[in-house]
Amino acid sequence: MGRDLGRLEQSLARDSVSLKWSVEAMSLLKKMQVELLVLFKKSKLPISYGAEEDWFDQYMKETATLLDFCNSLKSAASGINRYRMVVELAIHKLGEDNSSNMVDVNNMEFERFKRVHGNLLDVGVMRETLRLGSGISSGGNHRQAKSMAVVMLAAKTTMIVLSLLLVSAMVSPVSIDMGNGAISHEVPQLKPCVELLTQLVGRFHERTSRPGSGSGLALVEHEMVDEVVGRLKAQVVAGRVEDKERFLGGVELLRTRSAGLSEEVERFDAAVDEVFEEVIRGRNEMLGIFRDGAVSGG
Q1: Of the candidates 111, 192, 263, 276, which lies 20 to 30 Å from 140 by C-alpha distance?
Q2: Could you tell me which of 148, 179, 117 has the C-alpha nearest to residue 39?
Q3: Across 169-183, 193-207, 220-234, 250-264, least confident range
Q4: Which helix (H) or strand (E) holds 124?
Q5: Which residues cross the membrane (predicted)?
Q6: DSSP 54
């Protein structure tokens, strides 16, 4: 997982926050689910069938949260698609009459996503992790169980951070509190993971705090469309454009960028579906193990 987090951070070092990067983040979430399932099945840890919460309960809780997150991302992707459809309609109207220099500015009132100023959420990533991690060194003597608890904490923390970064990119900025090293003190085994996540969050914030970035999303594909929209609006004065050829050239550029946005949204949507399906598959397998254990008396 460390190498994968490093690659995500390096992607942001080279390029802007984008739907392409978001697909990479979703691929990492999927890979984590695949590897967790393999690890759990190999470990053959006992499942508690009483009131006590164990690794199985934690797995089911975290995967349920991930399913909810996937649904939220699907909704966000649908919102971007609605924006793109409005742009496509405007392109069609703007290109209808090539003979006149008159342009109805109302046709250029594209639906926009307004950035919510301030923080939509203020999430302490490590609070729940700290609560769960406090029992690692003291709870139980089974070495394998403790190792599994660390793995679960690393996966949980990574899932939360990646989820919040994707929310920041596609919906609205989110404050991410990495806990000032408290988790590394409480659970030293998590220190490498936390350091990588902290670097990733820092790089993400570098990329999304550029001056002059006024669109409602941090995604570069959306900003590229928004940039052309702004240029076209600037060419319209009192419903008239002076240079019709230049204006129509801008409309064609908008068409190209809108098509690019559509393609990337489709890829991202497919990546979210893959994560959702992988989580469902894992939960079904875990439930099968749970049922088999219950039938055999645990």
Answers
A1: 192
A2: 148
A3: 169-183
A4: strand 122-124
A5: 150-171
A6: -
- Identify the DSSP state of 213: -
Burial class of 221 by CB neighbour count within 10 A (0 to 12, 13 to 18, 19+) = buried
Structural domain harbouring 222: 2-295
Mean local confidence (pLDDT), 148-156: 82
Q: Which of 198, 60, 54 is nearest to 132 (CA)?
A: 54
| Tens of pLDDT, residues 180-227 | 667 667 778 888 888 999 999 999 988 886 544 444 568 999 899 989
Question: CA 294, CA 276: separation in Å to the nearest integer?
Answer: 27
Rounded CA-CA distance 95/92 in Å is 5
Rounded distance between C-alpha atoms, residue 107 and residue 182, angstroms = 53
Q: Rounded to an integer, what distance in angstroms lies between the CA atom of residue 10 and that of residue 28?
A: 14
Task: Measure Cα distances from 89 to 55, 218, 231 in Å.
Answer: 51, 24, 18
Residue 99 near residue 149, CB atoms below 8 Å: no
Backbone phi and psi for residue 240, each to the nearest 5 degrees, phi listed first:
-135, 145
How far, in Å, CA of 164 to CA of 65, rounded?
13
Number of domains in the chain: 1
Q: Mean pLDDT, to the nearest integer, of 86-103?
A: 70
**Cβ neighbours around 239 below 10 Å, total:** 11
| pLDDT above 70 (res 116) | no
Which residues on adjacent β-strands are paired with residue 175? 122
